[in-house]
Amino acid sequence: MPKTNYADVYIDGKGQFYYEVSLGTDKITGKRIKKKARKAENGKKFETAKEAFIEAIKIKNDFLQNNGYSDYTITYQQFMDNVFIPFYEAEVQASTYDSRKPMIEILKKRFGKKMIRDITVQDVQHFRTWLLSKKGANYSQGYASLAFGTLKRTLEFAVNMQYLTSNIANKVKPISKGKVSVEYWTREDFEKVISTICIDEYYEHLCFVMLWVYFNTGVRVNEGCALWWNSINWTKKEMRVNHMLLFKSKTNWERQNYTKTDAGNRIITLDDDTIQILKDWKKRQAIVCQSNFIFSYDGAPMQKSTISRIIERYAKLANVPKIQAKGLRHSHASYLINEINASVLVISKRLGHSSPEITLKHYAHLWAGVDKEIALDMTGRIKIETAKKTMIQFNGNQAIKGSVSRTVSKT
After folding, report:
1. What pLDDT score does 33 carry?
2. Keyword Endoplasmic reticulum: yes or no (predicted)?
């Protein structure tokens, strides 16, 4: 096509002016970024070469102000597949990444075809509404909050990696997590549960040991699944927690040599009952199979879904609340608070929290009512003896003075 006297401005066979500018190299594809148009932003066709030239200069300046970002051609799916997902997978634990995969797919399906720069406030708001709407995804408050937060995180990373100048999701109200109430068993509930288990049966013996250890140590579900017999120091009566289990199938699992947090790498002191229960199970298990795992009936590790089914089965038999597997950790915290009267610092260390503040954040509600004994102990400690008559000259409001006088005289 014939070139005009203006740089990057051309005229086609129909006499229409247009510009075609080069904007550098796309960071994803490695290809040259070009932008071509016959109309200005207002949709009006260029009537002169100068108009096209002015628009081309504006486009170049916008690009330079964005520091050469490649957001003209990259779609959200390209960004996710080539930039965010590789970063995220390397940043988090494998179990966390696996659990987030479905959510990432939701985001890609929703925004994948859009140029990342073209995602608008309206798009983000519609997504927020869809997550919560009964006619939309109708997710729980917690899951919707996590999904929306993940979208926000991906766009924030796009800003950090210089694909965007700002995070459009910041203009939309976030979704609160809501109040999450995790059911747990009291000591009485737990006693009812274990009373329904017949440890003479090999598999039920394992169920008993598993429930006992979780209830009495407060280990996280994946920490318990990863426990080996060499995690126990029989002499010191201690359990070292420093692994997590990533379970995909009975033949495809990984015992990771770290816990959810650095503070999760800890040593838990075991009571004599727990030590004896573990010794009995170790002997029983060794007759049937050779296993490194404490929670195993055939040598293979136990998976989380199996633990959930065991809890559900015995909760029904004992007629106690059905709880999640992680509810056993909450049960342990409740037991320490309400039965043992343990300090928040001790509980924090035992649960593997990084600070007592984290413990209070999650379990402060369990302390409700623990001051009843204090209130009972306070009763009668202060001798109550008041003056028979006033020792001050009252100079206040006359109406109040008269009322006080009348009350005293009646008395």
Report:
1. 78
2. no
